Amino acid sequence: MPTCGPCKVSFLHFRPFPVTIFTVIIYLALFIPLLIIHYVPPTPPPNASLKESIGVDLEDTWRTLAAITKKYHPYNSRANDHVRSFLVDKVNQIIEKNGNNKSEVIEDNYVNVLYTGRTTVKIYFESLNVIVKVQGSGDFEGVVGDVLVNAHYDSVSTAPGATDDGVAVVTVLGLIDYFTQPNNTPRRDMYFLLNNGEEDYLNGAMAFTEHPLAKNCRIFLNLEGAGAGGRATLFRSTDAEVTKFFKRAKYPFGSSLSGDAFKQGFIRSQTDYIIFDGELGMRGLDLAFWQPRARYHTQWDSMAFTSINSLWHMFETSLSSLVGMAHDGSYTFVQGSGRKHTGVWFDMFGRGFAIFQIADTFIWSICLLTITPFFIFGLFYLLASSDKLYLLASSPKSNGPLPPKLELAGCKGFWRPFVAILFSTSAVVGTALLIAKVNPMIMYSSQEAIWVCLISLWIVTSWFSLKIANWWRPSATARTWSIGWISFIAWLLLVLNAVAEDRLDVGGMYFTIFYYMATALALVFSLLDLFFLPPTSHIYDSIAHADPLEDDDHRSLIAPSVDHTNTLSPDDEESEPPNEQTSLLRDSSNLGRGRHIGRRPNSHGSLSIGAASSLPTIENNEDDEPSCSSTTLCASRQYPGEQYWSRYLPRYTWLLQAIILIPVPVIITAQIALIVGTSIAQTGADGNNPITAYILYAVFTILILLPLQPFLHRWTRHIPLFLFFVFVGTLLYLLLAFPFSWNNPLKVYFAQTVDLRTGENRVHLVGVNKYIKSIVEENIPSAWAPGADLVCKDDPLRLGLQRCSWPGKMPNVVPGYESKKWASVNATSLGEKDGLKRAKLEVRAKNTRACRVNFEKNIGKWIKNVDIFDPTGKGKTVKHKSEGKDFGGPVQQIRLWSREWGRGWDVVVEYEQNEDTKAGPVGVVECLWSDANDGGIKALEEIKSYLPQWAVVSKLEDGLVIGEIPFATEKVKEI
Q: Which domains does the chain have, with CATH numbers?
């Protein structure tokens, strides 16, 4: 009779080749669409179709973007006035085209607001906002509140502002076009605010708070740009109720984690959203572009680096949300209604959108944390009651005389998942910290390589550790124990989520809910597998039917090996298939009844069902399984080397476990990982610590790949071997490659100061410590000129960066005048009033509408009140509602903004008289020039011309050129 040879098992069995192929396909099927959605905005329908369906010409809207981004147009520039005039004309043309005589264009040229910016900074700002009112049908009873749509039309002084905030501005024009059409009249009144001055401390939005129309608005949509292109993401929302409108979008994109990052201060920059939410108490959404930040606030924030697809994505999501807002007839958003709950939300593959109230997710978390463990413990109890708890049983139960001790070895494999997780986590975190130490800025241009490196490393280290453990002590319970450990880790993360929801009112860790649900459900199915096993007492029952063992004949009951020196007898071939009554001391597939092979006592002389056999179990091909011609016998085989009783386990449930365990956690977590990774990759240029970013990369790598671990020990060696070389290659690249490129340039920050008394000037360039000095020394001609006096030191404005300063080319910001005539300040005493001393500062400056008054530190703390007056007497200053008679703190700086050129300001301060103030206020006036369009700022032009191609310049302060004049009270100083 021939010996048994190998036969192929079903492709769906838990074998190396099927497991490898199936799990790899699952991950690729999830990663590929997530990457496409993350990086590629949706394509708009044909323009003719859009004009027919919604009446908006998207191509004309795109051409409008070209018209407003021809030049840099900050508030303090002549180009800003041209953009404003163009927008007013465009809105009037739209209204006239649609024949809507109920719409109104309001040019706000009269609101002057004085308010507190930072604690020690007072800001006076004169509005140049444009407001468009579209009257609704009003077919509801009572007052429900109006809808506000906001975008700012100013740019920074170093960027054309295509996405910050040009795309948003032309989107607003498209929305005005839609809602002024006769067939699209909204139910609620709508206000479209094009504000001016957002880039200089959100001044335009703050001025709107003092406009009479502001009190009517209850819902808002803010459109912003914090990156240059890509998809528009929902940055944050005030509550769950208003977020439901975003669910209407065809291509929603975003996660509430970003809102929590703002709330907890991890993101320090702000948008107009905080004005409408905090100052006006409105409820709404913050929709913004967010990647890539390398071009943000630079000359590359232009139409060349955005697309009509990005415009379409912002327009479609905005229109869908606003249609819901404008036609909502509920009283949910009436001030004081009380129906406001923190929202937890996220998109699903960029096509669906989930929204929950944080109170509901908290209850959900608590239920999962408490009920699910009891249910799992209940399954353990049922397994123990039915004598099938192989996971924890050290030896079978016996109902008769005790035979030699037998081991089930079900606990074998308990610690290996934890050790593998610890080993792979340490490797990933250590590698991330190594990159952060050696080449921290590489994430600036190569975040994809970081993901590939860390993912490859985690898979290789986990596979290697699990494979070694499986070779040393094979175990059929490895998958179940691994799922159990992952579920326990997910339970701990869910505890953190519940604490954050309860104590911090943030739901950004919502992914832990779905993570734990998936892992717990997979664990339940793993435990249900054990119910298919025979009771452990069956082992002893089988011994009674076996040949007696000699004292020194210790039989291994795990995976009997193929004995190629023996053949099957006819009796063996005709034997019945194994069943629950078949003796476990019998090799039911290869050997006759009672045959004893593979004798190998364990360390304490017991009969082991979990120890490895002393003979080979399978042929060299690990994808094959020893079998006979009988398919029944082949199918009943356990995996070679694993416990004999595992042959009774279902062979297909691993597929169900993989489908439950992998997709949901990976989808939810990978989406957040991509958003977080992209958001932080280029923040190093702002002075942020890169270690935090690399730790986050490592953490999300681990969370994404943990669901793969229960199946890794079955993987073939081919993919881990390939990934090992991928890891080595990417690690060498990340450690050695230059971190910047033309497509991902390092951002450096420019300013120039001029002493208006002497004409001396210094150019300042701020950037990352490791690179900024070499950039200046090796590339900027004026910095290496004789007597350049280059000085580099830590920057006081941008912590974590270095400032290099040197004498530069004199700017020509006031043509035809020498620097002494650019600005003047007169400080005179006005006597005493109501127990306070008074002083007047007359600040005048040519060709600018922005100055700053800086008081000496010991002076500012005694100032109790500030008033700003228009020297022409035409305007009236309105103190913001938060400004009382007593400012309640030191006034170190007053920022002055005028809507008119060269007019100036009269500043009256009231202060307590004491030893510090007996001579009156003392300080420095700084006047700002921000127009870089005509080449008047020669030092900036030089830097733009000579910077290496892997660097790009942005503004450091509100002004590109800062002219300084000291002042002292009662001394008239005209320069």
A: 1-32+544-648 (no CATH), 47-110+137-330 (3.40.630.10), 413-520+655-736 (no CATH)
Alpha-carbon gap, residue 145 to 335, rounded angstroms: 8
Indicate the burial class of 799 (C-beta count within 10 angstroms; 0-12, 13-18, 19 or more). exposed
Is the model more confident about 861 or about 522? 522
Give 336's contacts (C-beta < 8 A, 6+ positions apart).
Answer: none
The sign of the dihedral angle between the CA atoms of 541, 545, 550, 552 is negative
- For the record, the structure tokens of 603 come out as 């360390």
Per-residue pLDDT of 875-887, as tens digits, reads 667 777 666 544 5
CA distance 194 to 388: 71
User: Which pair of tokens denotes residue 600?
Assistant: 């190998």
Phi/psi zone of residue 955: left (φ > 0), alpha (ψ -120 to 50 degrees), beta?
A: beta
The Cα–Cα gap between 945 and 468 comes to 59
CB 708, CB 459: distance < 8 Å:
yes
Closest listed residue to residue 854, CA positions, set 901, 890, 829: 890
Nearest CA among 424, 526, 527, 410 for reference residue 473: 410
Q: How many CA atoms lie within 13 A of 346 on its CB side?
A: 21
Q: Which of 255-259, 515-519, 620-624 ranks highest by mean pLDDT?
A: 515-519
Kindly state the greatest CA–CA separation across the chain.
Answer: 123
Q: How far apart are the first and last CA of the chain?
A: 115
Please compute, for residue 88, the number of CA atoms within 13 A of its CA located in the half-sphere on the CB side: 16
Collapsing DSSP to helix, strand or coil, 956 comes out as: coil
Residue 870 pairs in a beta bridge with none
**pLDDT tens digits, residue range 917-929?**
778 889 999 999 9
Kindly give, in sequence order, each residue whose CB lies less than 8 Å from that of residue 475, ignoring residues fewer than 6 positions away: 409, 412, 413, 416, 481, 610, 642, 643
Task: Dig out the tokens for 399 from the structure.
Answer: 């109902």
Residues facing 284 on adjacent strands:
220
198 carries an active-site annotation: yes
361: its two tokens: 């997710």
Supply φ then ψ for residue 974, to 5 degrees: -105, 125
Alpha carbon dihedral 474, 475, 480, 482, in 10-degree steps, equals: -30
pLDDT in tens, 528-579: 999 988 887 776 555 444 444 333 333 334 333 333 333 333 344 344 444 4
- For 789, counting Cβ atoms within 10 Å of its Cβ (0-12 exposed, 13-18 middle, 19+ buried), the class is exposed
Using one digit for the tens of pLDDT, what is the confidence trace for 649-681?
A: 888 899 999 999 999 999 999 999 999 999 899
**In the prediction, which pLDDT does 804 show?**
97
Query: Dihedrals φ, ψ of 325, to 5°?
Result: -65, -45
> Can you tell me the distance from the alpha carbon of 78 to that of 76, in angstroms, rounded to the nearest whole number?
7
CA distance 41 to 228: 13
Neighbour tally for 912: CB within 10 Å: 13
The Cα–Cα gap between 17 and 613 comes to: 24
User: Beta strands of 871-929 (E only): which ranges?
Assistant: 876-879, 893-897, 905-911, 922-929
DSSP letter, residue 235: E
Residues 251 and 312 sit within 8 Å (Cβ to Cβ): no
Amino acid at 837: K
- CA–CA gap between residue 57 and residue 421 (Å, rounded): 55
Strand 217-225 relative to strand 146-152, pairing: parallel
Point out the catalytic residue in the list 107, 126, 198, 941: 198
How far apart are the C-alpha atoms of 457 and 428, rounded to whole Å?
7
Report CA dihedral (888, 891, 892, 894) to the nearest 10 degrees. Answer: 140
If phi > 0 it is left, if psi is from -120 to 50 it is alpha, else beta; for residue 154 that is beta
Other Cβ atoms less than 10 A from the Cβ of 338: the count is 7
Is residue 951 scored above 80 in pLDDT?
A: yes
Q: In the chain, helix, strand, coil percent, each to 5?
A: 40, 20, 40
- Quickly list DSSP for 791-802: EEEE-SSSTTEE
